[in-house]
Design a protein that fits this description.
Mean pLDDT: 90
CATH architecture of the largest domain: Roll
CATH class of the largest domain: Alpha Beta
Number of strands: 19
Helix content: 25-40%
Number of helices: 18
């Protein structure tokens, strides 16, 4: 019998740090969850296999790459499937199933040459079936099938045609040059799937996935446990010629509560923790973002840029005078001490926004004087507004409960420069609908890149993308911006495109339809016996090169 020891003193102490009503924590639920996790982990390791264990806070919706929209789905699908290309940890495009490619001089035609040693996972439908070019033709056509209603069909918006030239050659033709296209092909939507399995399983392919990835599907008990096992025929090897992956299996649990997850991690029952939640950040980190002494020998912390910009947005078509006023928007940009905000609210995780919407880590990022902290200037601008309008300015910021502390901080900061701020808290789903339909004057938002190109952020300000038909939630409108945007998509010269990106970002910052608050960072905590887990700005979990020292206590 395996006995799992729960540190009740530690659990009680941590629960007292936050109101029970806010976090909805139940002591008995936490204990039972962790005991169950310990038992499940023991079951997975009874066969002496090396298992990498991690947790997802919500249930995975599908293991079909055509529906890999949310990060939880993407993380799981990434272990099972491959595409033509992939991105390394520096966001450089690397060969995957395509060993090489050629791009025509006009940037419209891509010709991929495939490897001849890639096989789909063995399964009950077929055995040892090699991937050929027609499999990509099938997979891409499936993604475009209206009856499937796949959320990733947009990745082919720029594509006019694609075809298998022969078994090892695949051709894609674009309507016009689109430099970010190779990055888009690295998304999990573009993974190859076998037509035989789709025909056999139908919609049940979501829970009977067959891919080419480093791990193969074993079982899935929704909301409880997901297990993958090592693919013995995986085509990629390390630099020494050793087959990947190294670990024997991956076990995913679904503990919804982040404090319970942290307690499981602190007890060594899961190997990996990502993100920083208020329920445990002060127990784990110092105020400057370093591991506390008690974790120094137990935990390794990895930190790096994340392609996520957090910001305040103004609806430019608002009838509220303060929102229409560039004086007020600019004053707010200069009136928030973002360095202090990150230290107080994020323990130093994340970088205060000193540039525009393009985050650190992407070509096009640059420091901007238009967003520097300058409370004296903010007071002058607000005083000028009062003199011109004859009234004291008031702003209402709409946010969700998760970001209430940030908005309360902004409220205090701006009150010091003479601006009255009220805060409206609404559910995330309500906020999403309201901002898409122009019902919010000022709101907190964030933008996580779908693919690593600054175009992803600048598309938020293209006039043809006005919400609700596109992601321009501010209804920012500039003909010069639009012209430069379209010019940037026509050029294949990287330096010219980067310069245009910077010029577009400057236009946005000058008009101030948004206030960038901070550029998020990926923060990962791993057990001391885990090695080889990398970092990347998309927070994609890649377990191919992970190694784990098997402890004697687990045998």
């Amino acid at each position: 019998m395996y006995i799992y020891r729960v540190n009740l003193r530690q659990l009680s102490k941590m629960m007292k740090q936050r109101p029970l009503v806010r976090y909805r924590l139940n002591l008995l639920t936490c204990i039972l969850t962790i005991i169950l996790l310990g038992c499940q982990s023991r079951i997975e390791e009874d066969d002496q296999k090396v298992v990498f264990r991690y947790n997802e806070h919500k249930n995975i919706g599908s293991l079909d790459p055509a529906f890999a929209k949310d990060l939880a789905d993407i993380q799981a699908v990434n272990q099972l499937f491959n595409g033509l290309v992939e991105l390394d940890d520096s966001l450089q495009i690397k060969p995957c199933i395509a060993k090489s490619w050629e791009i025509s001089e006009d940037g419209k035609t891509y010709l991929f040459t495939l490897r001849n040693d890639v096989y789909f996972h063995d399964n009950e439908v077929f055995k040892s079936r090699k991937v050929i070019a027609s499999d990509f033709e099938y997979s891409f056509n499936r993604l475009l099938d209206p009856s499937l209603s796949a959320p990733g069909s947009w990745v082919f918006d720029q594509v006019s045609s694609f075809k298998a030239v022969d078994n090892h050659t695949f051709e894609i033709n674009l309507r016009q040059a689109f430099p970010p296209f190779l990055s888009i092909l690295g998304m999990k939507y573009c993974s190859v799937v076998p037509h035989e399995a789709i025909a056999y399983y139908g919609t049940d392919f979501r829970n009977n996935p067959i891919g080419t990835g480093p791990f193969m599907f074993k079982r899935w008990e929704e909301n409880l446990k997901l297990v993958f096992v090592k693919n013995p025929n995986y085509f990629q090897k390390d630099s020494n010629g050793q087959p990947l992956p190294y670990v024997d299996a991956v076990a995913v649990t679904f503990i919804p509560d982040k404090l319970s997850e942290f307690l499981a991690f602190s007890q060594g029952k899961i190997d990996f923790l990502t993100g920083l939640d208020a329920s445990f950040k002060d127990d784990l980190l110092t105020a400057n973002g370093s591991l506390k002494d008690k974790y120094q020998n137990k935990v390794k912390m990895l930190k790096g840029p994340y392609l996520n910009t957090e910001y305040l947005a103004f609806y430019m078509d608002s009838e509220v005078p303060e929102v229409q006023s560039k004086l007020i928007r600019t004053a707010m940009n200069h009136g928030i001490d973002k360095v202090k905000m990150m230290a107080y609210l994020r323990n130093g995780i994340g970088k205060p926004a000193e540039g525009g919407m393009i985050p650190m880590g992407l070509p096009g990022y640059r420091i901007s004087e238009q967003v520097t902290y300058n409370p004296e200037l903010a007071r002058l601008l607000i005083s000028q507004y009062k003199n011109e309008s004859g009234k004291s300015p008031k702003i209402i910021i709409t946010t969700t409960d998760n970001y209430l502390s940030f908005c309360e901080y902004i409220q205090r900061e701006l009150s010091d420069v003479g601006l009255e701020i009220s805060i409206s808290v609404t559910p995330a789903a309500t906020l999403k609908t309201a901002k898409a339909n122009g019902k919010l004057d000022v709101f907190r938002a964030s933008w996580v890149a779908d693919y690593p190109d600054a175009e992803n952020y600048l598309s938020l300000f293209l006039s043809s993308n006005f919400a609700p038909r596109g992601p321009n939630y501010t209804h920012f409108n500039s003909k010069l911006f639009d012209d430069w945007y379209h010019e940037s998509q026509q050029t294949t010269d990287f330096k010219v495109r980067t310069l245009l990106y910077q010029k577009m970002d400057s236009i946005v910052m000058e008009a101030a339809p948004v206030i960038p608050l901070f550029y998020d960072e990926v923060v990962r905590f791993i057990q001391s016996d885990v090695d080889g887990l990398g970092m990347n700005p998309t927070n994609l979990l890649d377990l191919r090169t992970v190694k784990k020292i098997k402890k004697m206590s687990e045998n």
